[in-house]
Every structure is written in structure tokens, then in C-alpha cells.
């Protein structure tokens, strides 16, 4: 399935107006859903023990039908702005990298501004880039600050539980995988350089490996009704997700280290997308990084799509492990079609 | 419905690595659909003459079920790259501002790269920002070039006809409005300054005025099937679209002119979104711009969402009316929630 793709050369950031991460936040649905809850709800032939053993997941958060995407965004942003002690009116731009929004149109980032009762008409839009979306959003934010913005608010994450719940016979291989969460990050002007390198890549030969079918392509003449499964993320081959994550982790690390002149030993923390505990471990092994320099929250939150990396970063920050001045390599990988990473001094 | 929003101050572009528009292209479905075709297909009580009189539209292009979004993107990009005499492998980034993609995941911009059989893993993602999306994409492209990219390929537009065709009883007020089209633009490094100012705004108090319901918010417990109408753009109040377009056209023009020190008389062409012929005329009237300095292709293509402005620009270029060195004010407006504009020397 996978063909040889030549990965682009890394390009230096032509930036002399610097940005830094000011603060982070996370918004989570109220309901903690255990493996047993899912087994019971969908009457599956599985045991909590087997699921934990094979996937490494214990629980995840799932939205109820009365929870909106903008509610989770609001919680994440309130935490983020409170930590920064910055009012929403100071923000120059809002970018939300979504799996689904509350609606397709308008952008859910505008729904967030309404919920905030923002008085200023802040420019805002949504991105669709699945798991790698937060790396695109961070890359965008530092370029906006470089070219004039003072504060850029970025959000990412997934709300998929309502879709799973509507789908009467969900795929038993993936129904345990996904969780709902939104991560927020405020990136703002900095007098000193913090972001040292950024790198993104795609591999179109893996375009078919993970799909959310909603779109115009599956529409067929004569269709009467749509099955709710069009909202669901279907993964064709889990091994490709595993192998490509490890492979790209290495490609991206090499590009970032060469660009910055650093070695892996200089990096204090490796923050990445943990689509499963095994995928996280495979990335560490590929890069020869000890577990103490990274972490996975997959057991607790599952695959939260573009929120995986920033939730891990947020947790390292609030737990006090990651300190200002530490060097971070942050990466995010999807099911093979898009990946990215950055090195920054927190 | 509309509340007072304080529009943000325009911020100077902190850019010393310049960009310019290198080339443009347009991809259109094969089928030209007349008003009479729609009247016949949906058995509507209307006449071609009445539709032409009230809306100013004669025909539009509608995709067939076997046409993909990536097919239209491909046609637009081939034209764009051929004009520029640039190979796809030279492109540093692809951004598609969509209404719908072929799928929700992966990004349809990656599907385009597969169709091109691109050998390089070019970073690519999709944006959701409805009608104002192309202004965001252009704004993004010049910031990418400012911070290191050489060539950024942006695309925008709408493919909605399949959705309309599935929906047995489409809204008779809006079924004539929308057309399918994809516009492409190659923005690249320039030794001289071309983009003089850029301005974007949102108004969250108009969040509910136009909706594409696909998203998690309309999902309800116990739902069995989804109606294809979730794909359709519903407009709550057409007067708001009309009034906000004229109002924002003025706000944006004033900000852009103040920032550049230019007057409206200095502008050679005003290129804008023409959601109807009347909306186009209202913008010109508000800005006191003679019709010779602008144009509307609404009669021919209808509302193509984020493709409206770039298709008008493309047509001015290929018809030879717009010449290198001309000053252009380009704007794009949606149904009120998001708008933007730029001044550039073509």
C-alpha cells in the first residue's frame, strides 16, 4: 500500500519576531467511560481485562448529547487564559483544528467567541488535519506572531462519542480507542527565540488508511438516508498506523535535530501523539528515548486525535515536570497521511 | 439578531520577505445546469424568467455523482501550475479552504497530491471558513512566504450539487443559488512588495444565520438515520447576508485604505464575493465604485462559496482586463459571521 515518498527538506524559519507558549488548557467531557461501560452499552463479547491488555486503555471521556464542542473549547480556553492572565479581547486570532465541529459551517471557533460573549470581532477559522492538526496550528501561530500578531489562540481535539453512540454496531476493534477532549494553547510574542524548528510532511499513498467518510465522495444517486457511521473514523490497517508513526517520528526528529544542531540527548522532553500505548513505546524505541523523558495518557483519555500531543504537554506543565527553559521536541502523527513536529524551548 | 461588535484594529504586516500572486486557475464540473433544469428536476413551481429576474442567475455548474472534489481541484491546479510553468514538486505547502471535501478525514488537499502522483510529501491541510475562506488562505500564504516558504498553493471552493440532488425537497428559496467550482492560486516569493494590507473579522452574533448542519450538535439520542439535508447550506435571513456584505465591505475597505494610505480612486479593481447580483451591486454602491472597476459572474456560476472572489479575479486576469501593476482590493463575505479583504498590486 505504501509507496516511496521523498520527504521534503526542512526549511529554516525566517523569523525575527519571536513567539512562545504562554499557557495551555484542557477541556474534558464530564463522563468517564470505562471499557466495561462500552462492553455493556454495545453488548460486546469482550472483557475489560482483555481490552486493557491488548490496547492499554482503561477509560476515556465521552461527551453526552447535551455537551457541545464549544463547551469543551470554552473550558480549555478559560483555563488557558486564566493561567496567562489575559483577556479574550487581547487575542488576535483563533484557530481550531477539529475532527468535527458543532456544525460544518460556520467555523466552531466563531461559536467559541459567541460563548465567550467576545466584544471584538476576532478573526477565527477551523482547520481539518486530523491527528497532525495541532502541529499545523502551532506552526501557523508562530508565523502569525512573526508577521504581526501578539496573541494567537489555538485549539485542537476531537468529539466523536456522540457519533459512536448513534452507531448501533460500532467496529469492535476501534470502539475502545477514541476519547473526547479539547486542548487549548495561547502563543504570544516573546523577546527571545523559543521555537527553533518546525517540520511537517504528508504521505498521500496512505490517504485511504484512515477515513471519516462524511464528505461528498460517498454520496450516491438514489441514496435515501445516511448511516450515522459516516461520522466514524475507520482505520483500514492498524499496523500502518503503528509503523508509520515510528518511521515518521525518526524522519521528523532527524530533520529537526539537523536544523537546530541539537542531539536527542539535548532534548528534555519528547511529547507525541499516543494513538495507543504501543505506538507511543514504538516511537520512543525508534528514537532511543527513555520513558522518563516522555509520557502517555492513552490509558486515561484514549485517542483524542489532534489533542493527544497538547494534552500530554499540558499535563507535563501542570504536574511541574516540564519547566521553563526545558527543550521540548513535540510531534503528532495520524494514521500515516500527515505528520509533523517542532523543537522549542518552553 | 445582530449585536454590536467592535471590529479589530488593522495590524500592519510585519513582513520583509515578500510574496506575489504568480498564477490562478479554475476547475469546473462539466454539467451546465439551467434554472429550467432545476425546475424540472425538483418539480418546482417557478419559471426561469422569474428566477433570473429575482436572483440574477441564468446557470451554474453542478457536479455529477462520479465527479470528485479532487478532480475539480486537479483541473484548477493544472491550469495554475501550467501558467506559472512550475512543477508541483516545487510547492512547499497546499491549503484547501473547503465547504466539503471528498471526505472529512484525511484532508482533501492530500487527495489532490495523490491525484498528482506527487513524489514529495508536501505539507497540506484543509481550512473550514465558508465564504471568507479564500481571504484566510491568501493571508496565510503571504505569511508562509514571509517566514520561509517559496511557493504556497491555495485552493478554495464548493461542491454542493451532490448534496442538493440527494435532498428530495430542497429549499426552493436557495436551490437556485449554489454552484460548484474550485479556484486555485499559486503565491510565491517576490523581490518587491505586492501585498500591502490584509484584514479579517468575525461577527459571532450572526453565527446562526447560515448553517451546514453536519457536525456533532444536531446528533440526538435515538436517531436512526441522517437526512441528506444536513449537507445543505441553510440561510436563516437573506437580508442579513445582503446588509452585512455591504456593511463589512465598507468597514474592510476603510481599514485597508487607512493602512495603505490609498484612496478608493487609487484602486483599479474591486474583486469581491457576489452571493447574488444584488449583493455585488450593494457593495459597489456602498463603496461608490463604478461597475467598470468590478465584475460579477454570479449569473454564470452562482454562489460558489470561497471560490467567488478568486474566480472573479481569475476571469479578470485571463480576459486581460487586470494587468500586472494594477492595484486590487479583494474581499470575501459570507452570511455575516466572517469576512475579510486585502489590497495588493497584481
Automatic annotation (TrEMBL), chains A, B:
<dbReference type="GO" id="GO:0006633">
    <property type="term" value="P:fatty acid biosynthetic process"/>
</dbReference>
<dbReference type="Pfam" id="PF08541">
    <property type="entry name" value="ACP_syn_III_C"/>
</dbReference>
<dbReference type="Pfam" id="PF08545">
    <property type="entry name" value="ACP_syn_III"/>
</dbReference>
<feature type="domain" description="Beta-ketoacyl-[acyl-carrier-protein] synthase III N-terminal">
    <location>
        <begin position="125"/>
        <end position="200"/>
    </location>
</feature>
<keyword id="KW-0808">Transferase</keyword>
<protein>
    <submittedName>
        <fullName>3-oxoacyl-(Acyl-carrier-protein) synthase III</fullName>
    </submittedName>
</protein>
<dbReference type="GO" id="GO:0044550">
    <property type="term" value="P:secondary metabolite biosynthetic process"/>
</dbReference>
<keyword id="KW-0012">Acyltransferase</keyword>
<dbReference type="InterPro" id="IPR016039">
    <property type="entry name" value="Thiolase-like"/>
</dbReference>
<dbReference type="InterPro" id="IPR013751">
    <property type="entry name" value="ACP_syn_III_N"/>
</dbReference>
<dbReference type="InterPro" id="IPR013747">
    <property type="entry name" value="ACP_syn_III_C"/>
</dbReference>
<dbReference type="GO" id="GO:0004315">
    <property type="term" value="F:3-oxoacyl-[acyl-carrier-protein] synthase activity"/>
</dbReference>
<feature type="domain" description="Beta-ketoacyl-[acyl-carrier-protein] synthase III C-terminal">
    <location>
        <begin position="257"/>
        <end position="346"/>
    </location>
</feature>
Amino acid at each position: 500500500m505504501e509507496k516511496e515518498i521523498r520527504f521534503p527538506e526542512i526549511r529554516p524559519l525566517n523569523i525575527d519576531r519571536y513567539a512562545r507558549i504562554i499557557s495551555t488548557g484542557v477541556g474534558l467531557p464530564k463522563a468517564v467511560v470505562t471499557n466495561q461501560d462500552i462492553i455493556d452499552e454495545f453488548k460486546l463479547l469482550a472483557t475489560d481485562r482483555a481490552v486493557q491488555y491488548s490496547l492499554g486503555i482503561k477509560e476515556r471521556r465521552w461527551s453526552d448529547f447535551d455537551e457541545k464542542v464549544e463547551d469543551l473549547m470554552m473550558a480549555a480556553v478559560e483555563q488557558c487564559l486564566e493561567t496567562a492572565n489575559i483577556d479574550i479581547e487581547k487575542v488576535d486570532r483563533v484557530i481550531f483544528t477539529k475532527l468535527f465541529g458543532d456544525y460544518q459551517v460556520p467555523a466552531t471557533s466563531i461559536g467559541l467567541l459567541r460563548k465567550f460573549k467576545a466584544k471584538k470581532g476576532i478573526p477565527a477559522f477551523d482547520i481539518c488535519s486530523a491527528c497532525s492538526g495541532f502541529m499545523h496550528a502551532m506552526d501557523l501561530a508562530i508565523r502569525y506572531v512573526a508577521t504581526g500578531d501578539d496573541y494567537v489562540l489555538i485549539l485542537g481535539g476531537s468529539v466523536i462519542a456522540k457519533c459512536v453512540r448513534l452507531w448501533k454496531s460500532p467496529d469492535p476493534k476501534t470502539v475502545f480507542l477514541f476519547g473526547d477532549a479539547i486542548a487549548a494553547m495561547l502563543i504570544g510574542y516573546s523577546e527571545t527565540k523559543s521555537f527553533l524548528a518546525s517540520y511537517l510532511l504528508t504521505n498521500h499513498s496512505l490517504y485511504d488508511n484512515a477515513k471519516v467518510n462524511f464528505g461528498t465522495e460517498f454520496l450516491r444517486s438514489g441514496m435515501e438516508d445516511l448511516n450515522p457511521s459516516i461520522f466514524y473514523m475507520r482505520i483500514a490497517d492498524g499496523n500502518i498506523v503503528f509503523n508509520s508513526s515510528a518511521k515518521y517520528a525518526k524522519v521528523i526528529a532527524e530533520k529537526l535535530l539537523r536544523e537546530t544542531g541539537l542531539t536527542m540527548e539535548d532534548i528534555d522532553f519528547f511529547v507525541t501523539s499516543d494513538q495507543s500505548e504501543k505506538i507511543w513505546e514504538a516511537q520512543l524505541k525508534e528514537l532511543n528515548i527513555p520513558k522518563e523523558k516522555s509520557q502517555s495518557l492513552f490509558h486515561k483519555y484514549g485517542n483524542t486525535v489532534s489533542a493527544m500531543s497538547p494534552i500530554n504537554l499540558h499535563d507535563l506543565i501542570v504536574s511541574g515536570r516540564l519547566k521553563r527553559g526545558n527543550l521540548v521536541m513535540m510531534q503528532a502523527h495520524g494514521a500515516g497521511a500527515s505528520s509533523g513536529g517542532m523543537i522549542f524551548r518552553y
